[in-house]
Structure formats: C-alpha cells, structure tokens
Write a structure and sequence with these properties.
The complex is a heterodimer of chains A (about 150) and B (about 150). With about 150 residues, chain A is an alpha+beta fold. Chain A has two domains: about 40 residues, Orthogonal Bundle (Arc Repressor Mutant, subunit A), CATH 1.10.10; about 80 residues, Lrp/AsnC effector binding domain/regulation of amino acid metabolism (RAM) domain (Alpha-Beta Plaits, 2-Layer Sandwich), CATH 3.30.70.920. Chain A is built from five helices and five strands, in the order H-H-H-E-E-H-E-E-H-E. In chain A, strands 3-4-2-5 form a four-stranded antiparallel beta sheet. In chain A, a hairpin with a 4-residue loop joins strand 3 and strand 4. The mean pLDDT of chain A is about 95. Chain B is α+β, with helices and mostly antiparallel strands and about 150 residues long. Chain B folds into two domains: about 40 residues, Arc Repressor Mutant, subunit A (Orthogonal Bundle); about 80 residues, Lrp/AsnC effector binding domain/regulation of amino acid metabolism (RAM) domain (Alpha-Beta Plaits). Chain B has a four-stranded antiparallel beta sheet with strand order 3-4-2-5. In chain B, a hairpin with a 4-residue loop joins strand 3 and strand 4. Chain B is elongated, with a radius of gyration of 20 Å. Classes of the chains: A alpha+beta (about 150), B alpha+beta (about 150). Chains A and B meet through strand 1, helix 4, strand 3, strand 4 and strand 5 of A and helix 1, strand 1, strand 3 and strand 5 of B. Strand 5 of chain A pairs antiparallel with strand 3 of chain B.
C-alpha cells in the first residue's frame, strides 16, 4: 500500500531527510502551512513508512576514524547454509557498517570504518579474510561521499 | 576540538537511539539535561555532529530497484573527475556519489522504479556522462545490515 504524495509532502520529506528534529511548526512556517496542518502531514508520512531508521551523521575524521573502505566480497562456496553463515559472521564485526547482498561481480558489498590504514589491514586480515566462505575480496578506500536528495 | 569521554558517551547514546528526546538520553547517560545539551551543541558547532537525518525508504515511494554503478574514468582528461561529478549531480535518480582510491574511481548509487525505468535512466542519463572508460553494475538484492553507528 503506497500513500499518495503531493508537492508539499515531498518538500516535507526532503526537509526531514536533512534534519529529523524539525518541528511541525518550523516546517509549517517554511512551507506556508499551519502547525496542525503540517503535523497531520508529517504524521501521515511517518505512518506511511516513508522513513527508515534515523541516521546520525558524524564527522568520522574528528572521531578518529580516518579510513572508510568499501569491500566487494565473492563467496568461495555457495548454498543456503554458506550464505547464512557468512552473513551472521560479517554482521558481528563491530567495524562493519553496512552489508548488502548484491548481484554482479561480487556477492556482498561491505562498508567498514577503521582508525587508519594499519587498523584496516588488521581488520582485513583477522576478521574479513577469516570469514567462512569468503573468496575474492576487493577493497576501495572511500575518498569522498556526497549524499544527493534523490528524485523527490 | 578536543573530545573527551563524556562527549563519546553522549554520541554513543544518540547513535543507539536517535529518536529519543535529549532529556531522556541525558537521563540514560547519567548526565543532567543541561550538560548533555551544552556538550551536544558544542559538538554541533565543531562539526562533529553534522546532522540527525531521516533516511528515506525509497521502495515505499515506489523505487524498487537500487543499483551501484562503479566507474573507471579516462584519467588522461585533466578534468575527468570534476566534469563527471558535476554531470552526475544533474541526474535526479542518483542518491549518492562516492570517489575512491582503488580499482574503482567513482561510484554512483542509483534508484529506479523498476527494471525498465532503470534501463531508461542508464541509457539516457548514465551512458552520456563524460569521460567514462568502464562501467560495472552491482544490483542490490537485499540489505543485510544497515548500521549507521560507529564504534566510538
């Protein structure tokens, strides 16, 4: 069940995707709606499942995580058990941020944060290379990432 | 800015539950709401806490397909990266642009309504992007883990 959205709803979604804590009053003022009207629209959007988990954007560099790496991992052996075992093990690594099952050159895409390159090497050797079923691993160090508003 | 253990604790509690109000998080962290808010504000000003955002659930808006396109650019063109990124920003279906050190130069995360919509975007908006040497696609089958929290 998909909810119908108009131009104003899209603007509200865009605003909240930049700052989740904007109040109904603030959004209303921005878009020329009364506070209760804005509140009703926000509630409808939230209830409609338009948002996933909230995201806390931190400056990782200032917090001592100087390196973000995207890994492409190909499994050596496949089969249902192999996939489940691999997924359980990779999700348990604290430095692992996201894990995606993909179709293409690799089976999984994994995002990792590390303190520095030698910390990354430790994670790669001790945690990633030892994952059950992991075959070919490709690493790409993230230099910059820009989030775009998308087709709203 | 120097970050101390209290700041780290504050970020840990926010990351664990970005939905709760400051007063509640302060209580859980064993700090007064005033101190919690003050330190949080300081981290905002220093750019450590960049934003708390709602993450859009694109499938709920009808975008069922997500593809990660990995590009190698023609590095003999001096402005290859700048031209490519500038042009990619004009494609509304691009939700993130990443640059890398490794086998991949640039990655575009793209969403589409369905496969035929994806094919249209690919042909009309992606292939004409400047300075492409090679493209490789990974199609998202399923997100296994999406963690935005880092082990602070």
């Amino acid at each position: 069940m998909k909810i119908e959205l108009d131009e104003i709803d899209r603007e509200i979604i865009k605003s909240l995707s930049e700052d989740a804590n904007l109040s109904a009053g603030a959004i209303g003022r921005r878009l020329g709606l009364s506070q209760p009207a804005a509140w009703r629209r926000i509630k409808r959007i939230r209830d409609g499942g338009i948002f996933k988990e909230r995201r806390v954007d931190l400056d990782l560099n200032q917090l001592g995580f100087g390196v973000t790496v995207l890994l492409g991992i190909k499994l050596g052996s496949k089969g249902r058990v192999a996939l489940e075992e691999f997924e359980r093990a990779v999700c348990a690594i604290p430095e692992v941020q996201t894990v995606q099952h993909v179709l293409g050159l690799y089976d999984y895409r994994v995002k990792i944060v590390a303190r520095d390159i030698s910390d990354f090497e430790r994670i790669l050797r001790r945690r990633i290379m030892t994952l059950p079923g992991a075959g070919n691993v490709e690493s790409n160090v993230l230099l910059s990432e820009e989030l775009r508003p998308g087709p709203l | 800015m120097h970050i101390n253990d209290t700041d780290r604790r504050i970020l840990r509690y926010i990351q664990a539950d970005p939905h709760s109000p400051v007063s509640e998080l302060a209580d859980r962290a064993g700090l007064t709401p005033a101190l919690f808010a003050r330190r949080l504000e300081r981290m905002r000003e220093a750019g450590i806490l960049k934003a708390i955002r709602e993450e859009i659930n694109w499938p709920a808006l009808g975008y069922e397909v997500e593809v990660s396109l990995r590009f190698n650019l023609d590095k003999t063109a001096p402005r290859a990266f700048d031209d490519f990124i500038e042009a990619a920003r004009n494609v509304p279906e691009v939700i993130s642009i990443g640059t890398f050190l490794g086998q991949v130069d640039v990655r575009l995360q793209i969403i589409a309504k369905d496969m035929s919509d994806y094919q249209r975007i690919y042909r009309e908006h992606i292939l004409p992007l400047p300075h492409i040497a090679d493209i490789e696609a990974l199609m998202l089958v399923a997100p296994i883990q999406e963690r935005s929290a880092v082990p602070i």
